[in-house]
């Protein structure tokens, strides 16, 4: 199965990056391909659970729903442990199914994926 | 020069609008070099990057992205633009007409085409190398 790694380094809502990245990840996965979304830097906020209807409240699509849908089709969502720690984000506040990896493990994941890597 | 019987394909994704940053400039320069070296080049304009498709761009001091896009098309690059991003930004209507999507527009550089995110997935599958510009 072709692999794609997508890195998100922006938090949701302020920029379109997270939404667009998850949209592309879902399209890739829905065609039977393997995908891993890596949350780095401010991107780790994408992994947090408990968004309160962003569509209703700020007219923006809920990225938490996108993450859950991606996990349902066996996509991987991986958060950088160091970035979480620096921002005081506890692992238990993450969406169920989001993995936490050390930077060195994330590098290995990206290298393993080969040529197909997108950065948002 | 690329010497295999099948040209290797470099697929590039642009995520940022022209002029606000140099991502579009870098992509255009690299794409042109790749074409000159014999690679097949496919480009996907995503999100604000669809502004690179606008006709009548007239940057006085900045790299002329519109002219570079035209030159890339002339040299054989396949440039696809995100359909839903282009509809959102008023470039095309994308409505069905006689069973086909209406992509006619006076605002878009000739020779550029539109596709959904699934078209981008096809491009990624065809790619020998993938480069992304402007995401982070």
Give a verbal description of the structure:
The complex is a heterodimer of chains A (120) and B (136). With 120 residues, chain A is an alpha/beta fold. Chain A has five helices and five strands; from the N terminus they run βαβααβαβαβ. Chain A has a single domain (10-119), classed as Hypothetical Protein Ychn, Chain: A (3-Layer(aba) Sandwich), CATH 3.40.1260.10. Chain A has helices spanning 17-30, 54-58, 63-72, 81-86, 103-113, and strands spanning 3-8, 34-39, 76-80, 99-101, 117-119. In chain A, strand 3, helix 4 and strand 4 form a beta-alpha-beta unit. In chain A, helix 1 runs parallel beside helix 3 (63-72). Chain A is globular, with a radius of gyration of 13 Å. Chain A starts with a strand and ends with a strand. Chain B has one domain (9-133): DsrEFH-like (Hypothetical Protein Ychn, Chain: A, 3-Layer(aba) Sandwich). Chain B is 29% helix and 21% strand. The radius of gyration of chain B is 15 Å and the shape is globular. The model of chain B has no long low-confidence stretch (mean pLDDT 94).
CATH-defined architecture of chain A: 3-Layer(aba) Sandwich
What structural class is derived from the secondary structure elements of chain B?
alpha/beta
* Count of the domains of chain A: 1
Distance between the termini of chain B: 31 Å
Number of helices of chain A: 5
Main sheet record of chain A? 5 strands, parallel
Q: Within the largest sheet of chain B, what's the order of strands?
A: 6-3-2-1-7
User: Quick one: CATH superfamily of chain A?
Assistant: DsrEFH-like
| Known CATH architecture of chain B | 3-Layer(aba) Sandwich
> Globular, elongated, flat, extended or rod-shaped: what is the shape of chain B?
globular
Q: Structural class, from secondary structure content of chain A?
A: alpha/beta
Which stretches of chain A are low in confidence, meaning pLDDT under 50 for 5 or more residues running?
Answer: none
Order of helices and strands of chain A: EHEHHEHEHE
Q: Tell me the helix content of chain A.
A: 25-40%
What's the CATH topology label of chain A?
Hypothetical Protein Ychn, Chain: A
């Amino acid at each position: 199965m072709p692999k794609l790694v997508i890195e998100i380094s922006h938090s949701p809502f302020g920029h379109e990056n997270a939404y667009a990245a998850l949209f592309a990840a879902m399209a890739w996965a829905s065609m039977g391909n393997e995908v891993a979304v890596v949350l780095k830097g401010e991107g780790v906020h994408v992994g947090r659970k408990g968004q309160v209807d962003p569509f209703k409240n700020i007219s923006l699509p809920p990225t938490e729903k996108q993450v859950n849908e991606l996990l349902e089709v066996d996509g991987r969502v991986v958060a950088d442990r160091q970035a979480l720690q620096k921002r005081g984000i506890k692992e238990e506040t993450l969406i169920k199914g989001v993995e936490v990896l050390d930077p060195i493990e994330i590098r290995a994941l990206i290298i393993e994926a080969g040529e197909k890597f997108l950065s948002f | 020069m690329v010497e295999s019987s099948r040209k290797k394909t470099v697929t590039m994704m642009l995520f940022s609008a022209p002029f606000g940053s140099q991502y579009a400039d870098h992509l255009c320069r690299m794409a042109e070099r790749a074409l000159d070296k014999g690679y097949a080049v496919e480009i996907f304009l995503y999100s604000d990057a669809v502004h690179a498709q606008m006709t009548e761009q007239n940057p006085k001091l900045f790299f002329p992205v519109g002219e570079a896009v035209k030159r890339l098309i002339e040299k054989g690059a396949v440039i696809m633009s995100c359909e839903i991003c282009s509809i959102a930004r008023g470039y095309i209507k994308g409505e069905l007409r006689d069973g086909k999507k209406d992509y006619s527009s006076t605002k878009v550089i000739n020779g550029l085409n539109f596709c959904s995110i699934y078209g981008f997935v096809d491009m990624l599958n065809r790619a020998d190398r993938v480069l992304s510009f402007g995401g982070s």
